[in-house]
Every structure is written in structure tokens, then in C-alpha cells.
Amino acid sequence: MITQKIKVIPKICLISVACIATTSLYASNKTIQELVDAVNGTPDLKTRDAGKEAKLRNHAKGFCTSGYFEPNPKLNDELAIPFFNQSKINVTARFSMGGTNPHASDKTAGRFMSLKIDGDKENLNFVTTNSPVFFAGNLEDFFTFQVKVKQGPEGKQWLIDNKPDAKAFFDYVKQLPPSSSFANSPYFGVNSFLFAKNNSEIIPGRWIFEPVEGVVNLSKAQLADLPDDFLKQELLTRISQKPAVWNLFIKLAEKGDEINDPTVLWPETRQRLLIGQVIINGERDNELTIQECGKGIFNPVLLPKGITPSADPILNARTPAYIESFIRRQ
Known about the structure:
CATH superfamily: Catalase core domain
Distance between the termini: 46 Å
Order of helices and strands: HHHEEEEHHHEEEHHEEHEH
Structural class: alpha+beta
CATH architecture: Beta Barrel
Helix content: 25-40%
Oligomer: single chain
Largest sheet: 10 strands, antiparallel
Number of strands: 10
Shape: globular
Radius of gyration: 19 Å
């Protein structure tokens, strides 16, 4: 198991708007603005202005709800993260579909869950997807992927022919059936973080959320009988009767595992630590902060003491890109 301390790149330009506007990030020739344009499909001034007017964003179709997080009381035997000493911590959740279309069909396979866990003094945010396979290991490939997929079938075929990581992602998604509910889907943090152990060692790991009631997928016949908008009402109806619950794990790396490339999967045999449970019950849904949570951002490097980002360039570009997108929507 990896026990040595790993050097982490500095959190350059995570908050500074001026820095975001001028800096190329982490050995990439692409600026944050160019990355956001690639995601939004706004490659020039005219389309960019139109995107701002329409308040264009990724994961445009989504909704917010609430619940709480219960840390595993035995976790302190393993990790030195004071944040997890609390017994019950408020959670703000946003469930969404991928892409910039606010009217996207729920019949596609993609499911996304973002969380804010707001403790007494510190916070922990998550940005997760139901695919453990990511399509790009660096910002250049991320940019190329976003540009090519917006070119339609020809662009997708170019990626399949020229980018093995993109091909692996498409192959995985192709065989991934749509889940019957946001509550019956697993979620993965594709990026790695560094966790402090009680013996002062540092261990890399990745987040995994597993639904307590199991994964339930839809058959083609079942999917055909559903409307394009079924996921939101299904979840809200479900949690009005019984909470949706996920076990949160950290999957731990071992020596030789690639830490800074989210396209590389770790073996299923890797040790997992149970961090606690996320319970979504809608108990605070009438609060303004919950109703308007989609207007803000979920910052995956807003971390409590004892957790730090890895040097993954995709991870470290997320926050400035989210801030740039947020600014454009104002």
C-alpha cells in the first residue's frame, strides 16, 4: 500500500477571477475560457455571447434536494480527518443529467450527483458520475473530446479512431443501461485525493457511492413506457416515503496504481474504507439555499483538514472552470 507522502501541485488560480482569465493551466495550452467554451459549444465571440445570454451550463437539467451525512464512527481508527468526528452533517444534493440541454431525456444512461456536506467549521463537496471510466487524462484531450462530440457522429468516430481513452469511455457507456432512479445508481469520483492516516502517512483514494437498496436498471420495454422526464418526480416521491441511502467508500490505491490520471481504473481487489452514509430525505427542501443550490457551484477541492487534492490536472481544473461558468451565468 502507498504510504509515502506525495507532492501535490499548488492550488493555482482556484479562486482568483483575474488569474482564471489569463493563465494556461497545468502544462496545457488551453485556457480555462477555452475549456468552458469547449464544454458549452461556444467556440467564438458570437456563440459565447449567446451562451451567456441563455445562461448556458453543463448539467443544465437537474434539481436540488437535501438530507444528511452520518460518518462511520470507526473511521477515526484509520484516518486523521477531524471533519468525520461529527455525528450528523447537513447535505445539499443536486441530481442531474449531462450536457447543456435543459430538456434532455432521462432515458439516456448518464446519472450525476453533486453534494455539499456543510459541517460546523469545514465543508466537503463531491462531483460524481455513474461511470467509473473517464474520457480524458489531460486537459488537451479533454478539450478535444468536448469539441469533437459536438461535431456529431463524424466527431465521435474520430475520437474512437484516434483517442483510446475516449473509445474506452464510449464502449463503457454503450453497455450501461439506464437506472430506474437516481437512488438506484452508484456514483464514482473519477479523480484521486490524498487522505491523512493516523500514523501521519498519506494514502491516495477515490470516492465511491453505492446505493444501499442496490442497483436497479431499466429494460428496454420498461424504458419505452416512461416519459422523458421521470427521474425528478420518481426521486422526490420516493424520499417522501423512505430516504434514499448510499454507503460512501474510499477505494484505496496501492503501490504502482496511477494516481493522477482519471482514465486509469484501479483493480476491484483494492481495499475500501467505509466513510459513512449519505441519507437523502428532502427534510430541508423548503429552505431557499436548497431551492437555489443549482445557481452556485460544487467545489470538489473545498476540502476539510486531512484531505488534499492529487496532482490530477482534470481535478485541479474543475474549480476555476466552474467559477468561469458561474460568472458567465450572472
